[in-house]
Specification:
Layout (H helix, E strand, L loop, with lengths): L1 H13 L3 H17 L16 E8 L4 H10 L3 E2 L1 H7 L11 E9 L11 H10 L2 E2 L5 H8 L7 E5 L4 E2 L5 E9 L2 E8 L11 E6 L2
Parallel strand pairs: 2-8, 5-9
Antiparallel strand pairs: 1-3, 3-9, 4-9, 5-7, 6-7, 7-8
Amino acid sequence: MSLWLERLSKHHEGKGNQPRADLFAALAAEERASKTPETFSDVLVLPEGVRQLPDLTIGGVNEKELEKRLNKEGHRAGDWAMDLLRSKDFTTLSKPKTIPLIDAPLSAMGFTTMPTIDQIFQRADELKWDKVPAETGPHLRLAYTDQPLNEWLHMGMKSIADRDGGPRVFRVERHGDGSWLRALWVKPTRQWSLEDRFVFSPRK
């Protein structure tokens, strides 16, 4: 959590908004000092190639506010992502909650052949990694301001149907044309590349 706050501080400082930068810097210092019960261990034992992401705070805002924040911060959202955000099946927590996140290429999950989405989720469960709430996608897009160019992360989440009824999950990505929140089709028979990366939440 403190890492995200520090990044937000640097982001606003770079834009010349020093009051906002000072606010987030102070919040980061307070979070580090308090170490609240929902702040998770800084070190997890993970398979080689799996990356621990900073803890992420979700909840506390509804889907309309998330959409406004994405636009205000200059992030782009694809049509399918907007379908998911506006779906009746997309829900948010009423109160903020901090969750731990990891990002894993499928090869690091132990796959040697291209798996289906059901096989991916089964292996994640064996590794004691939980699916993330759907709102993790837009919250991670907002928080991950220094995402490397040409990286894309699929959310290990329960799929939500698009306008045509197709199952999709959020994908957080950055390309030459900016930072994006997209939604990728996850048909059951699709075989995923071993280089594809998924975001899960390790169990406490």
